Structures are given as C-alpha cells and as structure tokens.
Amino acid sequence: MAPTPPTDADLNILIRARLAALGIDLDQLPPGNTADPETGSPGRDSVLASLRSFLRGTVATLAAYQLPAPGATDPDAAKALSQQRVPILYPSNSTEWRKA
Q: I need a labelling partner for 46 at 20 to 30 A (CA). Which of 32, 65, 72, 82 fits?
C-alpha cells in the first residue's frame, strides 16, 4: 500500500510544531495573504503556503538522494554504500573528537 500524502492541515501542524520548537510563533504575523504595510511582514497564510510547498517539493527529493556508487556495483550494495559517512575535510580532528 502506497503512503498517502499529507494534507495541508497535516503539514500546517508539522510546520507550526517545528517552528514552535525553535521559538517561532507564526501567530505574530498578520493574518491572511497580504503583507503588513508598516513592517512588510508576510501574511501568515502566505508563509504557511510557502513552507508547505517547500516540504512537498524539497524534502522528498533530499530523502531519495543516494550517493553515487561505481558503475558495476550490485544494486543492494549500492544502497548500503549510500549510507556511509560523508567525507570530512579534516578527518584527524573528527577522529580525536570521537575518542573523547
């Protein structure tokens, strides 16, 4: 069974919860889609619509990304190879940090 995509209401709950965890309250924005003429703050509904669009378009693409594997790699092994750590610019620092 294929998963059902989240509704706008589901995404609004997710967005508000994630922002609240960061200390951001969307209720401080003006209601609706129009920006506040004095401050230029975007409307609450336009911010939610933009964030819903970002979640629907970007998160799935990033989640599906796999690091490239050599051409003759078995497909099952390619998935495992994509789970390796990303190369680090200064591995000696990371090695010492993990010893602590």
A: 65
End-to-end CA distance of the chain: 45
Contacts of 50 (CB under 8 A, 6+ apart): none
- Which token pair is 26? 């969307």
CB atoms within 10 A of CB 56: 13
| pLDDT higher than threshold 70 for residue 84 | no
Say which residue the tokens 């796999």 belong to: 66
At 27, the pLDDT band (50, 70, 90 cuts) reads very high
Q: 3-state SS of the chain?
A: CCCCCCCHHHHHHHHHHHHHHCCCCHHHCCCCCCCCCCCCCCCHHHHHHHHHHHHHHHHHHHHHCCCCCCCCCCHHHHHHHCCCCCCCCCHHHHHHHHHC
